[in-house]
Design brief:
It is built from eight helices and no strands. With 199 residues, the protein is mainly α. α4 packs antiparallel against α5 and α4 runs antiparallel to α7. It is globular and about 45 Å long. It starts with 7 loop residues before the first helix and ends in a 10-residue tail after the last helix.
Length: 199
């Protein structure tokens, strides 16, 4: 179920030197969160306005940077003892903003209803994971269509011009991912707990 997320430990290891340099320079994790959102915005603009296949390279580079910043902000906070509740909130908001910005890059390439559907669907896996974490379960990540896969699909659209089929895959795959996560959480949480939040 983890999809490309299974590569995260390897990717994080490749970024260890960068984390050390950032820590020595006392860079704020929040700065990295903002940088990731800006990279997503740049990728969206490239996808929207550059012709196929010239858009592929800047979209790929900017989304790779977006994923790197998404990895680095939390890791840097842990390494430097700067984990805060506000930082965790900003991290989640930054991730959702970056996701939606990338989807907005399709607005010049596909019908509005399809872009909106894919954008909404792309947020579902994260909301399921956050709800599970709020209930005391481990935070779930990964595919089959998680954040990394959505970035790869956006690069495919930039290279091929297949915006409509890519959005359809993102929408359907995101719903499937959310459903798989929900099923796993349902099994893990079981029915033994008696505490319920407001409904």
């Amino acid at each position: 179920m983890n999809g490309l997320y299974a590569l995260k430990p390897w990717y994080a290891d490749r970024l260890s030197g960068v984390r050390g340099a950032l820590a020595r320079r006392e860079v704020s994790p929040d700065t990295l969160t903002v940088a990731g959102v800006l990279c997503a915005a740049g990728a969206a603009a490239s996808l929207a306005w550059l012709p196929v296949p010239l858009a592929a390279l800047p979209v790929a580079v900017l989304l790779a940077a977006r994923l790197a910043f998404a990895n680095l902000d939390g890791a840097l906070a842990r390494d430097t003892g700067r984990m805060t509740r506000r930082g965790a909130l900003m991290n989640e908001l930054g991730d959702r903003a970056a996701d939606l910005l990338v989807m907005a890059g399709f607005l010049t390439l596909a019908p509005l209803w399809l872009v909106a559907t894919a954008g909404l669907a792309a947020t579902l896996p994260s909301w399921v994971s956050l709800a599970g974490a709020a209930a005391g379960a481990p935070r779930l990540n990964g595919g089959p269509v998680g954040k990394t896969e959505r970035c790869a699909l956006a690069v495919l659209a930039a290279a091929s011009g297949w915006a409509v089929p890519v959005l359809a895959v993102i929408a359907a795959g995101s719903v499937l991912t959310a459903g798989l996560r929900l099923g796993r959480l349902w099994r893990e949480l079981g029915t033994s707990g008696t505490t319920r939040g407001e409904r």
